[in-house]
Amino acid sequence: MAAIGIGCLSATVHARDIPKGTLELFGDLDISVVSQEVKIRDGFSQDTVDTDTNTISLSALYYVDTNLGIGILWDYESAKSSSGGVTAKTTTHVIGPGALMNISMNDKASLFLLGGFGFASIDYNDSIFGAESADGFGYQFGGGIRYFVNDNVSFNSSVRYLSLTVDIDGSGEEIESTGISIGVGLSVFFN
């Protein structure tokens, strides 16, 4: 019984807690290249669609309590698709308030959960129809793991789910977009 108590005390002493009053700058990069074959429902048409996507996620968080940070989340995504001689480019921005909960595992690693919501905008441009814009709202949630290099820097790996609902400007049409991203990043802590 004493060994269990000493083990629990040791884990608490060496925990990677983020203290109240800490400012965290968090950045994440997701890159994907997808090639997929698309078949139209009539069964006669098929084509290959190649898509390259780059996503950058940035956050600035202030820890209002030990292991609980609140702040602003920003996501930028750029996607380029090509199929049958048609090229399309989509740019997406989502910005708004968010929160992150740090869950300490040991002195070098911790898990984290994050979530947020905010304003979303999508700009679309293709070689046939031209440019369109859409605005609306979105939300995200996810989590990941951190490896602390020292007290002020961690390398992060994360998984996020993002959902957007936007209206195409002037058309009355609504677009719903959802996706999962996997990324790697870096956090810098100031306390």
Helix content: under 10%
Total DSSP helices: 1
Largest sheet: 8 strands, antiparallel, barrel
Going across the biggest sheet, name each strand in turn.
1-2-3-4-5-6-7-8
Give the low-pLDDT segments.
1-13
- Give the helices and strands as they follow along the chain: HEEEEEEEE
Return the CATH architecture: Beta Barrel
Oligomer: single chain
Cα(first) to Cα(last) distance is: 37 Å
Beta-strand content estimate: over 45%
SSE blueprint:
Elements (H helix, E strand, L loop, with lengths): L1 H12 L9 E17 L6 E20 L2 E16 L2 E19 L4 E18 L3 E21 L2 E16 L5 E17 L1
Antiparallel strand pairs: 1-2, 1-8, 2-3, 3-4, 4-5, 5-6, 6-7, 7-8
Description:
With 191 residues, this protein is mainly beta. The chain has a single domain, classed as Porin. The chain is 6% helix and 75% strand. It contains one helix and eight strands, in the order H-E-E-E-E-E-E-E-E. It has an eight-stranded antiparallel beta barrel. A hairpin with a 2-residue loop joins strand 2 and strand 3. The protein is elongated and about 55 Å long. 23% of the residues are buried.
